[in-house]
Amino acid sequence: MAKLWLTMHAANTLCRRPGDCRMMLRRVITYLPSAQKLLLAMLFRLSIAAFALSLAATAPHSSAHAAAAIAGIDIAADQVTVRFDRPVATASAFVLNGPNRIAIDVPGAQMGRIAAAGGLIASTRHGQYDSRTARIVFELTQPAVVSGAEFSSDHQALTLTLSAVTESLFARAVRKGRQLFGLPGERASATTTQPGGVTVPLDPPRPLPVPPVTGARGSRRPLVVIDAGHGGHDPGSLSADGSRREKDVALAIARAIRDELAASGRVRVALTRSDDRFLVLGERREIARRLKADLFISVHADSAPNPAARGASIYTLSEVASDRVAAQLAAKENRADVLNGVDLGGENNDVSSILIDLAQRETMNISSDFASLLQREMSPTVRFKDSAHKFAGLIVLKAPDVPSVLLETGYISNPDDLQLLFSRDYQHDIAVGVRKAVETHFARRLTGE
Fold it and tell me: Of 115, 338, 384, 434, which sees the most CB atoms within 10 A?
């Protein structure tokens, strides 16, 4: 064994390269017994592994040394300038909401730790997206987008021009995707192409069209916006045999409610959609806000794996779901903005992360009162589930200044409810109940009850 130790010590002393070690092993292994030959071969493999690790530890990290560092961030009223200690070739930006943020990715850079705020920027965070790409995240004081970007001539500074926008335009910017900066002959406001990548259309989003208002004359009458759920490529829930779609019954009931309210002559009324079209959830509530609606009612039909489940229910916004069923419904309805894995609305489903201000809390209280009133007025002709008033973080209900409810008119997955949902008599019964609730609601608001 001593002979083996001396042999290994000599090999270790003389070996400076893997080739040297292999040659030394061949020279000494012929003089050793069989068992010691095996042991020496095992020790040799360990030496080679240790040698490779030592080379990796002492090798210069050229990519890290070559990476640019974020040297500073300057914030003005509507501009942000990111400075680097060496040139960077390109950068990209995209927007996120829940909360509203602008994220900047800089290939060939390392993350910084510079805090900055001001203007449209509430705070700044840094991260390393991957080993070669730094990410800067600006949390916004209000919805805003990157309307222009320009590198300095030495590419050691990137200046972004920010523009405040409405929530609807911000939601559209979310789904537009990534803007690319620094490519030859291109501007941030144009369509840009990155070698080996894809073309990203960055044309300005079109304004959201405002639907017509019918019913009582005069702008001082209360305005009710009726939202027919789903539509277009989104059918909503389906009947058991797949022949009936939620989007169709929701539109039929929404039209019946509109006609009943308009005929009363006491309120004005508008539909978010009057035909088979798709709207992202944020656009639906934005229509109500742009019209300065006094009440928002979103019409849906429920579904469940259990075909025996039936009855109507009413949902209002809450920071937390009232039960597991409410949480599941919120998750299902909020996913209406996702098509083939692409998030069309950019909303965050984590309701606990949303900061609801005092105005929205007051709106939530009014919504809850109207939900109770709606159930009372509809109950004589419409069957409700037990504990029919539920609370959930439904995106479509999150307008901070418009009282909002989501009315599940029955279960399309239940044969009896399905027959009712598509009958004109049942649709009329729902519409009459909604009208009575709306009239009582605004009468109470007028008298201050």
Answer: 434
Q: What is the pLDDT of residue 249?
A: 97
DSSP 8-state symbol, 166: -
| Residue 50 domain flag | no
Are residues 5 and 74 both part of a single domain?
Answer: no
Range of the domain at 364: 214-447
Helices (H), 379-423: 415-421
Confirm if 224 and 293 have CB atoms less than 8 A apart: yes
Residue 109 inside a domain? The answer is yes
Are 115 and 171 part of one and the same domain? yes
Q: What is the pLDDT of residues 183-226, one digit of tens each?
A: 544 443 433 333 334 434 434 444 567 899 998 887 789 999 99
Q: What's the total number of domains in the chain?
A: 3
b/e code 50-81 from CB counts within 10 Å (16+ = b): eeeeeeeeeeeeeeeeebbebeebebeeeebb
The long-range contacts involving 338-346, CB below 8 angstroms and separated by at least 24 positions, are 339/233, 339/234, 342/175, 343/174, 343/175, 344/175, 344/280, 345/171, 345/174, 345/175, 345/280, 345/281, 345/282, 345/395, 346/95, 346/96, 346/97, 346/98, 346/171, 346/174, 346/175, 346/282
User: Of 269-278, 330-339, 349-358, 392-401, which range is least confident?
Assistant: 349-358
Residue at 64: amino acid letter: A
- State the Cα–Cα distance between residues 314 and 391, nearest whole angstrom: 8
CB distance 267 to 224 below 8 Å:
yes
Q: Comparing 408 with 395, which gets the higher pLDDT?
A: 408
Same-domain pairing of 233 and 306: yes
pLDDT at 393: 77
Mean of the pLDDT values across residues 325-330? 54
> What are the pLDDT digits (tens) for 69-83?
888 899 988 899 999
Q: What is the mean pLDDT of the chain?
A: 77
CB 295 within 8 A of CB 370: yes
CA distance 12 to 9: 5
Q: Tell me the pairing of strands 338-339 and 342-343.
A: antiparallel
Residue 440 is assigned to a structural domain of this protein: yes
- pLDDT surpassing 90 at residue 308: yes
